[in-house]
Amino acid sequence: MKISKGEDRIAFVGERLTVKVARTHPLKFGKQAIQLTQRYGIRTAINFWTDFDPDQHKSLQNRLLHGVNANRREERLARGAGSVVVPTVSILGGIANVQLTAEAPELSGRDIRGTFTDHLGTVPVAQLSHMLENPNNLGVDDGVIKFVDGGSKALEELIGSRPTEIQDSLAEIAANYNQPS
Questions:
Q1: What burial class does residue 139 get, using C-beta atoms within 10 Å of its C-beta: 0-12 exposed, 13-18 middle, 19+ buried?
Q2: Cα Rg for the chain, rounded, in angstroms?
Q3: CB within 8 A of 8, min separation 6: which ones?
Q4: Other beta carbons within 10 Å of 176
Q5: 96: number of CA atoms within 13 Å, CB side?
Q6: pLDDT tens, 86-103?
Q7: Quick one: pLDDT at residue 118?
Q8: How far apart are CA 142 and CA 44, in angstroms?
Q9: Residue 35 confidence (pLDDT)
């Protein structure tokens, strides 16, 4: 079993299944909440909780819920029609996700980024930067290359606005690069 630690999730990658457990940062949350309360009062601390969602970097909700939010998003994208995310089941309200383990295609981050840039342009690719730098964020599912890490808000937005270009990029990668056997 291989363990991969991200900022918001820990992935336990087995031979057949991958389990992604949402990480929380309660100490960072507590410290930030106390600092806000001491400096600006309880009302401002509450507003910081309600006004900024889990995707807002370093927000109060981000400290506690970003991993859960990423897990829920990943499952939602995996269930979508023509999904470009490896099939995923979310359990316990997003505390953990379970996926079939998909092997990374044999290609470099540069190749991935170049293909996506050809189809999407540089600005959208910059939004997906961390997902395209590591080939392990893609996997082969029944001969089709899909995202293994589907928890990104930027990916969700691009799937909504430019689904054809995303699918074309993945199809070109599958056609042009060696896949593990």
A1: buried
A2: 18
A3: 22, 23, 66, 67, 70, 151
A4: 10
A5: 10
A6: 999 999 999 999 999 998
A7: 92
A8: 50
A9: 93
* Residue 169: exposure state from Cβ atoms within 10 A (0-12, 13-18, ≥19): buried
The pTM of the full predicted model, rounded to 2 decimals, is 0.84
Residue 21's DSSP bridge partners are 10, 96
117 CB burial (10 A radius; 0-12, 13-18, 19+): middle
Can you tell me the distance from the alpha carbon of 100 to that of 105, in angstroms, rounded to the nearest whole number?
15
pLDDT tens, 35-80?
A: 999 999 999 889 888 888 777 777 888 888 889 999 999 999 999 8
Token couple for 4: 């991969």
Buried b (16+ CB within 10 A) or exposed e, 64-75: bbbbbbbbbbbb
For residues 95 and 71, is the Cβ–Cβ distance under 8 A? yes
State how far the Cα of 40 lies from the Cα of 48, in Å rounded to an integer: 11
